[in-house]
Amino acid sequence: MTPIHLAMIIAVLNQKGGVGKTTLSVNLAAALALAGQRTLLIDADPQGSALDWQAARQTESLFPVVGMAKPTLHKDVPALAADYHQVVIDGPPRVNELAKSAILAAERIVIPVQPSPYDVWAADEIVQLIQEVALYKENLRCAFAITRKIGNTAIGRDVVEALKHYPFPVAAATLGQRVVFAESAARGLAVLEVQPHGPAAREIQALARELLEM
Ligand SMILES: Nc1ncnc2c1ncn2[C@@H]1O[C@H](COP(=O)(O)OP(=O)(O)O)[C@@H](O)[C@H]1O
Ligand SMILES: [Mg+2]
């Protein structure tokens, strides 16, 4: 029997490495936890970067991080989710059974893309996989999120335009290229803990709000 759960399950997915999945996942989970939501972060990347992030902390965690890089994720997550309001899944850097399982588990999928044509082209793979796997999932909502954006550049605008060829919307909230994302990660912290009123914190909060309202 499938346990009843009320948690919102948000997967951060893109088979391309280095696009900012883990950065977005830990900061999104922190934003939700700091907003008073009981939050769980699932590390579904065999590399375990989110687990590494948490291990680097000197202070008590804002939320638990569990490693679960298994293609049975969609079967295991509902039982885990029962104790939480929000579950964030940091996705794997491959198009494989594990990625499929994360898609099946999710109600929201956010696909981080950098403002680069390579990222736009590479997004084709994850979009296809989502369409294949989630064809009949009525309550699934997907969106792109621009990450590592450098100012208000032409390439930034071009990428948003190019992403319109895909069937998912581009979130209005974007994450800038900001050193605080890397610096905070090195200490196992979220940007909201290091610079609670800084621009990175505002960006993450805006994206979190947008995802929940989708
Ligand atoms: N918005 C950002 N600003 C600055 N650096 C970033 C940003 N997002 C990610 N990074 C850095 O880019 C690298 C890759 O990010 P990561 O989140 O690990 O990507 P992925 O999980 O998709 O492989 C890391 O060194 C991270 O600190
Ligand atoms: Mg990662």
Share in helix: 40-55%
CATH class: Alpha Beta
Secondary-structure class? alpha/beta
- Work out the strand percent: 5-15%
Order of neighbouring strands in the sheet with most strands: 3-2-4-1-5-6
Terminal Cα separation, in Å?
29 Å
- The CATH superfamily is known as P-loop containing nucleotide triphosphate hydrolases
Radius of gyration using CA atoms only: 16 Å
Estimate nothing, just give the exact number of structural domains: 1
Order of helices and strands: EHEHEHEHEHEHHHH
**Chemical compounds bound to the protein:** adenosine-5'-diphosphate, magnesium ion
Give the integer mean of the pLDDT values.
95
Shape: globular
Number of helical regions:
9
CATH-defined topology: Rossmann fold
Biggest β-sheet strands, sense, barrel: 6 strands, parallel
Low-pLDDT windows of residues = none
CATH architecture: 3-Layer(aba) Sandwich
Fold and architecture overview:
With 214 residues, the chain is an alpha/beta fold. The protein has one domain (8-213): Rossmann fold, CATH 3.40.50. 43% of the residues lie in helices and 14% in strands. It is built from nine helices and six strands, in the order βαβαβαβαβαβαααα. It has a six-stranded parallel β-sheet, sandwiched between helices. It is globular and about 45 Å long. It starts with 7 loop residues before the first strand and ends with a helix. The mean pLDDT is 95. The structure holds adenosine-5'-diphosphate and magnesium ion. Residues 21-22, 45, 49 line the site of magnesium ion. Residues 10-189 form the CobQ/CobB/MinD/ParA nucleotide binding domain. InterPro entries: CobQ/CobB/MinD/ParA_Nub-bd_dom, DNA_Partitioning_ATPase, McdA, P-loop_NTPase. This is Chromosome (Plasmid) partitioning protein ParA.
